[in-house]
Amino acid sequence: MPLLKPFRALRYDPGRAGPLDELVSPPHDVMTPELRERLLAASSWNAVRLVRPETVADAAHDLAAWRSKGILVRDDDPALWILEETFTGPDSVERTRRGLVARVRLEPYSEGGVLPHERTFEASTRARLELLRTTRAKLSPILLLHAGEGPSPPVGEPDLEATLDGTTSRLWRLDEPGVVETVTAGARRPLVIADGHHRYEAARRYHEEEGTDETSHVLAVLVSRDDSGLVVFPTHRVAAEEPVLNGGFRETEVPGGAIEGLERLAALPRDRAAFVVLRAGGAFLAEGDPTGDPVADLDATAVDRVTRGPVEFTPDAADAEAAVVRGTAAAAFLVRPPTVDQIEAVALAGETMPQKSTYFFPKLLAGLVFSPFDE
């Protein structure tokens, strides 16, 4: 069974559905109630109704209705797609990330062909599984990293284009004989899941239930680990209870709060875990010693060892600090993002980071192309 397969995309008909800008949606895991309401107001056919529905039955109903009304149309022939995303990150730097959109063969992690780097939440995996069972469609692609070369820059105007919240996604269709084989040959195993662990694990479980060729692949975007637009940002922690430090850290006061703390954190070597703690009584930098263990030397791992009680996650250091100032949190932990080298080292070692250790930016949009389980 091939690692990568083209697919017959299910996509919006702009003549019936309207501009694609009003139809695309981020994936479920970054959806806030406010953003969902904004997307629902943008269009009655926005993809948020499928990826973050009120109920899974609603998603299945809408998907079927949109297909019967011609809002969504199916390509006659299978193809791969080149995806380019142009964006400005939280660091105010503009980048372009390029990847290949394809169906990727599902494998158990134990086979070593597809590897995770983060632990998952069981409830989130079950929710994605219920959506797959009910809709029988791959609605939102996952992001995979590979060590091979990425696709060459596409030529000509894109077949699809959409902009949402400052990120412009462009897609070029690839279906010429020979081109598909050439492009897919560039992606080398093992593939490392960058974003979409819950969707991958849900797809694996669904395939174990069904066991058919149709359920054997997941919709994914494959990006080279050397792509110039590949960037990882941190996910900070906000805790309801005061941390308990075990004496394994050198602690230094940080008078300047979050801003100074992030600057000092960024200046430290990446061979050891470190983090900034913000509390009502002030801020300090905690720095550990190098261990040589790819997981133990991660900032998120160190924070995971000292937090108590419920923990929430945010990519915004200012939001984390504000929660402490308001008194809605006992402490906030600011961390550095893992490097791609660290992520690969953890995955290849068969280990996993704590949940929400990475934030690959931007999140892949849902609604550009869908892939039903009926190939």
Main attributes?
single chain, 375 residues, alpha+beta, Conserved hypothetical protein from pyrococcus furiosus pfu- 392566-001, ParB domain, nine-stranded mixed β-sheet, six-stranded antiparallel β-sheet, 11 helices, globular
Provide a short characterization of the protein structure.
With 375 residues, the chain is of the alpha+beta class. It has helices at 14-17, 33-42, 48-51, 56-68, 122-135, 179-184, 197-210, 257-266, 299-306, 317-326, 340-348, and strands spanning 4-5, 10-12, 72-74, 80-88, 94-105, 114-115, 137-138, 142-146, 160-164, 167-174, 191-195, 217-224, 232-233, 236-239, 250-253, 274-279, 282-287, 311-314, 331-334, 359-360, 371-372. It contains eleven helices and 21 strands.
